Amino acid sequence: MLVLHDPDCLLHSTVEFIGAAAIPAHESPERLKSILATLEPSPLHDVHHLSYTNLPSSAKKALLTTITANHDTGYLQHLETVFSDWRDHDLVPADGSILPECWRFPTSIANYNVNPQPPRDIYARAGFYAFDMSSGIMKDTWASTIASANLAYQGVQTLFPPKYPTPVLQDETTAGPAPPPLNTLLTLCRPPGHHCDGARAGGYCYINNVAVAISTYRTTQQHPDTRVAVLDLDFHHGNGTQELYYADPSVLYVSIHGQDEFPYYTGAESEVGIGAGEGFNVNLPLPVDASVDAYLDKLALAVQRIREYKPAFVVVSLGFDTYETDPIGKFRIATEDYEGIARRAREALARDGVGECKSLVVLEGGYVVEKLGVNLLSWLKGWESPAEQET
Questions:
Q1: Does the structural domain 2-69+139-164+183-384 have CATH classification 3.90.1150.10?
Q2: 223 in active site
Q3: Cβ-count burial of 146 within 10 angstroms (0-12 exposed, 13-18 middle, 19+ buried)?
Q4: pTM, whole model, 2 decimals?
Q5: Per-residue pLDDT tens for 106-121?
Q6: One of 195, 236, 237, 257 is an active-site residue; which one?
Q7: Which residues lie closer than 8 Å to 14 by C-beta, 6 or more apart?
Q8: 282 backbone dihedrals φ, ψ, rounded to 5°
Q9: Could you tell me the residue ranges of all domains in the chain?
């Protein structure tokens, strides 16, 4: 499989506050290093190194325009400038991280929720643009975040090349020939994105990479209402992706996740969408430590709903915090189980022709660093070699 990576995604390294202590964030550069150490030697996968930094200014502008289709411009400016602002005021050391200290809270003030404006106080703005203390901002957070979003952006461009006569898929030094037609592409997005709702960071997420992919797809196809399905396989509910498309019938969001787990306030089966989007949001929660058989039962329901929807494009939010020993998630899923999970999903989609539509796989969570590479290899093996369809 073709795999896209940007070395700048390794720069972000921050802290989080869990329980009663500030600790190095579980979402660390070592996660990506473990995956690359396993994927790059594999003859079955082709890892291409891209560079957001080296893009021409016109390409950077086009990417930012795509991101602002569903991300607040004030929030994006905050992500890009907050660390340097704090440094200018001597509020954080050069090797430090910014965490919020106060968030917006419910009140009885008239119009409090109508067009809320960021506070003037520099400390308070950190809380206005975040919803937890797991998404610290350090000097390289923006560099990694925009590079991560660019992988999703260029991944879609590579999957749908007719609108792009100039190949976008080339590394920093080699402008090779245009790649052959692709069915699935993997983007090693880091930081992950599915907890970001376009206006707030949280859950290690700063820009919603799935939303970037969908906006890019809609632009390339010039059909804003073309149906897109999102299959979220991270242990934690993708509250950000749900929020962005909760009223949008042209995006079907389907999530299998831990019941009553982070982000705690979303992910119930009763959350089905609103307005025109009602019926196009499907949550399939499972108890912590659920068996792989229970997981496969939920997967069958998820894929069946996607088949019924008949999307033109599928985005997979792929997390491995479902692994049996993950420190902040876990179902009873072993490395070898991921092959079967991916195979069942792919073959079931293929039965109604959905498997023939193109898919972008976007990396989300997973925090057993030493197992991330082999778990991903197992999943990719299953996705690329689906079992024979039943007759």
A1: no
A2: no
A3: buried
A4: 0.94
A5: 888 877 777 788 999 9
A6: 195
A7: 25, 97, 135, 136, 137, 138, 141
A8: -125, 110
A9: 2-69+139-164+183-384
